[in-house]
Amino acid sequence: MATEAYSESWQELIDLAGQERQSAASGPMSLASAGSSGGSGGSDGSGGAASRGDLEHSDGPWTTAAGVAEALRTSTTTAKSRLTSAHTGVTAATEGLASSGVLKSVLTSWEDRLSSVRDECGSLAPKLRQVGKDLGERDTKVKSSLREINTPSEPSDPKEK
Question: 154 pairs with which residues across the strands?
Answer without folding.
Answer: 151
